[in-house]
Design brief:
This protein has 395 residues and is an alpha/beta fold. It contains 16 helices and twelve strands.
Length: 395
């Protein structure tokens, strides 16, 4: 279960809407980057950022600047949606540094775009947002009611290769009326997709209810966090109490002690590498190196993002191993782009050597973790207990 604090952007500000109504707006901050840093400092593993102006079809330039500021400020991955209705806008979002995009209106109006996006960027980086009112999908910032049901759309998207749905119950969104965990889980099972739930979280009890369903992999929380009805640390503690590793006989690993993935040594090393790369690439000639900077920043950010996801899936060895494998792949990509930067003369051999040494250390730790995790990956849903928890002791 991953907790996604929501950052909804309108004209560059952080706002919340009730039931998606533009005339029911509450502004919470004029500094989205500071809000993002707050959620990261409190232990958030991901952020969910929405371009409301894009969803409404309005000018999004202020929100684009706000998104850039968020991505420059935080090291955790960002899931982004709102107004993404063609491959160009999706590619631009990835170039900015987002880790995953959510396609909403276009999934109804131009479903081929979903297929094309998955073919180009991969299913793991493409989610589909299904926003429903009374079981029927709404589009265009929830202003237009479509004739398709939430389940029918979910099944159609699954047939196109979608594995993850962001599902919002519009009637509950921003109203803090509680969440219907059972209905969301039924939708996930019927369509054979993973679901990130959104809309209506009012208390930690809602998160506990969602944790009971394996099909629900995350929850987006907005209004409850901004009003103080729930505290992020409290919600994360509930999450940890349900999914934490149980150890006996004093066999406590670094993972078991960690209150969040940010306590893991390997994550801290990955974050340090990313921060150094971000600082170095600030000196690159902007006009000549946009693509290179985007690629090396994306890859270095994704190392830590995958370690964070591995931590979230630590009860399930096969899933845990899969995310570590993804982190290793992004590490390889990072090293490749470091070499390219050296060949092009944008960094010195001393800088390249220092970065490569950091990559080597992170790779050593990931490799050792993966080797040990493979011993337990045969049973996908086996809880890590006793001596099996020890394999992360040094990490």
């Amino acid at each position: 279960m991953i907790i996604y604090p929501a950052i909804d952007l309108r004209n560059g500000r952080v706002v919340r809407l009730q039931q998606g109504r533009a005339d029911a707006e509450t502004a919470y901050s004029n500094d989205p980057a500071q809000v993002a840093l707050r959620w990261q400092s409190e232990g958030a593993q991901w952020l969910h950022v929405v371009n409301l102006d894009g969803a409404f079809g309005d000018d999004s330039s202020a929100n684009a600047r706000a998104l850039d500021a968020i991505l420059a400020a935080v090291t955790i991955p960002v899931q982004f949606g709102g107004g993404l209705r063609d491959l160009t806008s999706i590619e631009a979002a990835f170039a900015r540094g987002v880790a995953r995009v959510v396609i909403g209106t276009a999934a109804v109006e131009n479903p081929q775009l979903v297929s094309d996006a998955i073919a180009r960027f991969g299913a793991e980086r493409i989610g589909v947002g299904i926003d429903a009112r009374d079981g029927m999908v709404a589009t265009r910032g929830w202003r237009t009611q479509s004739p398709i049901s939430n389940l029918d759309l979910a099944k159609q998207m699954r047939a196109r290769g979608v594995t993850r749905i962001v599902y919002t119950d519009i009637a509950r969104d921003g109203m803090m009326r509680g969440i219907d965990a059972d209905a969301i889980a039924q939708l996930a099972r019927a369509a054979n997709v993973r679901v990130i739930a959104s809309g209506g979280v009012a208390s930690v009890d809602d998160v506990r209810a969602l944790c009971a369903y394996r099909e629900i992999e995350g929850v987006i929380i907005g209004q409850a966090l901004y009003t103080g009805a729930v505290a992020l640390r409290e919600v994360l503690n509930v999450q940890c109490s349900v999914f934490s590793i149980q150890c006996s006989g004093g066999a406590m690993s670094n993972l078991a002690f960690a209150k969040s993935f940010q306590d893991l040594i390997v994550y801290r090393k990955a974050r340090a590498l990313q921060q150094e790369i971000f600082q170095i690439t600030r000196t690159f000639p902007k006009d000549e190196t946009f693509a290179l900077v985007s690629q090396i920043r994306r890859a270095s950010r994704a190392i830590g993002a995958n370690i964070a996801e591995a931590w979230a899936k630590r009860r399930y060895p096969a899933h845990f191993l899969s995310k570590l494998t993804d982190a290793e792949g992004e590490l390889f990509e990072t090293r490749h782009w470091i070499g390219t930067a050296l060949d092009c003369g944008y960094i010195s051999s001393e800088q390249a050597s220092a970065l490569d040494a950091q990559c080597t250390e992170i790779g050593r730790m990931l490799g050792s973790m993966m080797e040990k995790a493979e011993l337990f990956a045969g049973d996908e849903y086996r809880v890590l207990r006793d001596s099996t928890a020890e394999y992360l002791t040094e990490y």
